[in-house]
Every structure is written in C-alpha cells, then in structure tokens.
C-alpha cells in the first residue's frame, strides 16, 4: 500500500512539473490535433481536384513518368520536405519528420498510366499519345493512378501543416510502373525496394486504389489475402512436322498441346486444397501451324497463374511444369516450360487491419465499410506488404445513385472517377497516420 502511495505521489509530481503528460492532457492534445487535421484537409479540398485534373490530362506510361515526377517534386519541395528523385527510374520519395518522437509510417501512390485511348467526354480528357511495343497508342489514366497521386500530394500538404504535433515520421512514396515495366526493364515497387526504399524500415505501410466497383463514399478491404499473385508462363511444345494425312510419320504438337491444356486444369480442381484458397490457371493464346494439312514442328502456349497463398503459388508452378513435361512426353513430344514470376499475393496484415478498421469506419461511416471479395487482379503494393505490415484499401469512385456493378471498370477507355471521392481518400490516409501514431505512444 505504501509503495502505491509513493508511486502515486511521484506520478502527480511528474504531471505538475510537466515531465509526464496527464491522460486528460494527452486526450485533449490528440483531440486538438484531429481538429487541426480536419482544417488542413479542408484547405486542400480544391487543390486535390486541380492536381488530379492536371495529372489526368497529361498521363505517362510506366518508367516514363518524367513530367509527373517533376510536378510532384515541385510540390513536395515547396512543403519543405526531404525529397529524393530518380528512385527506380522516375520515382519520388519524400520524408516528413514529425515534431515528436515516434514510428515511421509509409504511404504509397502509383503514378503510371495505360496504353489506352480515352473515350470519356471531359474538358481535361487525355489526348496524349506514346509508343508502346512499337505501336503508336493513346495514353490514359484508365486505372485511376492520377487520383492516387493527387490524394497523396494533398495528404503530404495536410500532414505538413500539423507536422509539429505528429508523433512520428511519414515516408511518402510516389511509385512508377505499377502496371509493369516495359519489356527488358526493371521497375515498380520491387525495384524501389531493391534500391533501398526501406533501408529505414517503416512500422506500417498504407495504400489505396480507386475502383468503379464501389460508389463514392464507400471504402472496401478485407483482412488477410486481398489480391492474387500474378505469374505468366509460356510452354513450347516441340513435335515433329509431317503431312496432315499421315500423322503417324511425325509427332503432333497440337494434340499434345491440347492435352496439356486439359491436364493442367486439374491442378486447381484436383491437386491443391481448394478449401484453403482459390487458384486459377488460364491459357491466353495458342500459336502454331500455318496450313490445314501440315502438322507443325511446335506449338506455343501462353497463360497466367493466379493464387492467394504464397506456398500454393510455388506448388502450382512446380505442378504446371511437371504436368506439361510428362503429358508431352507421353505423346512423344517435348515441353519447354518458362514461368515469369510476377507480383506476389497482396496481403493485408490481420493485426494492422483490425487495429485501423475503426479509423476507416470513423472517416467513411460504418455503413460505408465494405468487406470485399477476393480479387484475382494483382498489385505490386504486395512487395511492400512482404517487408512490413501493410493495409491496402479500395476507394469507391462511381457516383452515388449509379450502379457500381455496371460502371466501366478500371482499365476501360470509359473509366470515370467521381472527383467527390478524392476528399474521402485524403481524410482516410491522414487519419490512418495520426491514429496509428496515437496507438503506438
């Protein structure tokens, strides 16, 4: 009992002397920070739209985001941030040091556009063109990365305005080439990490992606696996050319290729545990032969593998290779299998997601929090989430009152993003940072 009295007396003296903040003082301090943050967020509400329209009008393809990087850099330097350019070719990284000691948190936005010709009637629609795989193409932010960049620019400005009260540091990551680096080049999140992005490892990383599958005001995510891994493959089936009227004089790679296609479909349905996670093996092209009466020497198959579990991903790759080789061998042919290892599974750290869900519910309203289905598309945010706990969420951009299920999807030339959604993205990202810092005091 005496020890408790002595401890209480020391604690009270510490509070009176100002060496230890009282709980009520800390609560009041956090409350004032949130008030100031809301004011800061409101002050950028028009700027974020201006930035987004500029970025939308002048899109650039992967690893070619030169003007986009300059636009971002000018803004970040004006905020007084430490800015590093040329990361992974065109990436921009900035650090904001909070006024109080605390953890480092990373926020990511991707910058690149797609080789798509815009079909949306907007005064700031893209008319840009570029060269893609040797062809002249239109360029459009058909995946909405212009929104991501504008939101993170606004987040940087808002947090800079409350910098002295932040109990931690923020790393702003403007990433190139999320859609994939040009053939023969490296890029994206993987290259940024390779070049030392997380040399000082953040405790958490947050990212968002706009989607037409949700309405403005809605935020979607799920714990654990969210988006699939993506691996592409090619299978060259080598036979022996012969006349179509005498197939026994050669080895038919077309028949062998068809048997490989059918056999590999049993990998997902019969060979891996379907109760653990879904998986998909799809063939996208079959190339071989030139005439109806000539059995060719070889046939090429190309396709993709999608999984939601890293161990299953590795297992399926082995099974695909073995199946193709043995089926070809049984037909007297030979199969050469090559797998290009793409993006890993995007996983929302369960602990981090559970901890930050109340924050997202606070800014969007509980009724606007949507638990999304598993998504077989892929995201290279996954690389960051392999390094440190990550939370990736979707921001609805189909106008309220419209059916999000029938809206033009991301990557469509008719993809449309409601600018009213941008402010929610700013509010969500800034509040995640402030609340995370408050939870780790």
Can you describe what's shown?
38% of the residues lie in helices and 25% in strands. It has 11 helices and 18 strands. β1 and β2 form a beta hairpin. α3 packs antiparallel against α5 and α5 packs across α11. The longest helix is centred in the first third of the chain and has 21 residues. The radius of gyration is 26 Å and the shape is elongated. 43% of the residues are buried. The N terminus is likely disordered.
How would you summarize what this structure contains?
Helices cover 38% and strands 25% of the residues.
Keywords:
alpha+beta, 441 residues, 8-stranded mixed beta sheet, disordered N terminus, 25% strand, 4-stranded antiparallel beta sheet
Rough outline:
elongated
Distance between the termini: 29 Å
List unreliable stretches of 5+ residues. 1-23
- How much helical structure, as a percent, in the residues? 25-40%
Rg, rounded, reads 26 Å
Report strand %. Answer: 15-25%
Number of helices: 11
Order of helices and strands: HHHHEEEEEHEHEEEEEHEEEHEEHEHEH
| Largest beta sheet: strand ordering | 1-2-6-3-7-18-8-17
Mean pLDDT: 94
Biggest sheet statistics: 8 strands, mixed
Derived from helix and strand composition plus strand pairing, the structural class reads alpha+beta
Number of strands: 18
């Amino acid at each position: 009992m005496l020890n408790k009295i002595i401890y209480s007396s020391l604690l009270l003296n510490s509070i009176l002397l100002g060496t230890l903040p009282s709980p009520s003082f800390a609560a009041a301090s956090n409350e004032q920070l949130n008030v100031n943050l809301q004011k800061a967020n409101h002050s950028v509400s028009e700027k974020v739209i201006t930035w987004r329209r500029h970025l939308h009008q002048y899109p650039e393809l992967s690893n070619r985001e030169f003007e986009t990087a300059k636009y971002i850099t000018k803004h970040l330097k004006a905020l007084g941030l430490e800015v590093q350019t040329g990361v992974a070719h065109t990436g921009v990284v900035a650090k904001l040091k909070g006024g109080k000691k605390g953890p480092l948190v990373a926020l990511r936005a991707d910058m690149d556009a797609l080789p798509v010709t815009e079909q949306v009637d907007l005064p700031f629609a893209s008319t840009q063109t570029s060269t893609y795989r040797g062809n002249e193409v239109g360029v459009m932010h058909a995946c909405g990365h212009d929104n991501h960049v504008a939101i993170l620019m606004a987040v940087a400005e808002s947090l800079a305005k409350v910098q002295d009260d932040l109990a931690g540091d923020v790393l702003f990551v403007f990433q190139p080439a999320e859609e994939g680096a040009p053939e023969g080049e490296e890029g994206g999140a993987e290259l940024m990490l390779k070049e030392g992005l997380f040399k000082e490892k953040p405790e958490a990383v947050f990212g968002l992606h706009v989607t037409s599958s949700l309405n403005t005001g809605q935020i979607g995510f799920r714990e654990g696996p969210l988006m699939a891994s993506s691996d592409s493959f090619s299978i060259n089936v080598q036979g022996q050319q012969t006349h179509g009227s005498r197939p026994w004089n050669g080895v038919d790679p077309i028949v062998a290729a068809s048997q490989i296609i059918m056999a590999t479909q049993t990998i997902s349905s019969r060979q891996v545990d379907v109760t653990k996670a879904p998986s998909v093996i799809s063939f996208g092209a079959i190339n071989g032969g030139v005439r109806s009466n000539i059995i060719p020497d070889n046939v090429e198959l190309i396709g993709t593998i999608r999984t939601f579990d890293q161990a299953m991903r590795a297992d399926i790759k082995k099974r695909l290779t073995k199946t193709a080789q043995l089926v070809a061998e049984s037909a007297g042919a030979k199969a050469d299998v090559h797998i290009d290892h793409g993006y890993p599974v995007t996983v929302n750290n369960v602990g981090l997601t559970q901890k930050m869900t109340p924050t997202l519910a606070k800014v969007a309203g509980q009724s606007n929090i949507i638990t999304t289905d598993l998504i077989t598309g892929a995201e290279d945010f996954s690389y960051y989430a392999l390094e440190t706990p990550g939370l990736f969420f979707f921001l609805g951009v189909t106008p309220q009152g419209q059916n999000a299920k029938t809206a033009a999807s991301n990557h469509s030339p008719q993809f449309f993003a409601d600018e009213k959604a941008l402010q929610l993205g700013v509010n969500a990202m800034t509040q995640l940072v402030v609340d995370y810092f408050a939870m780790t005091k």
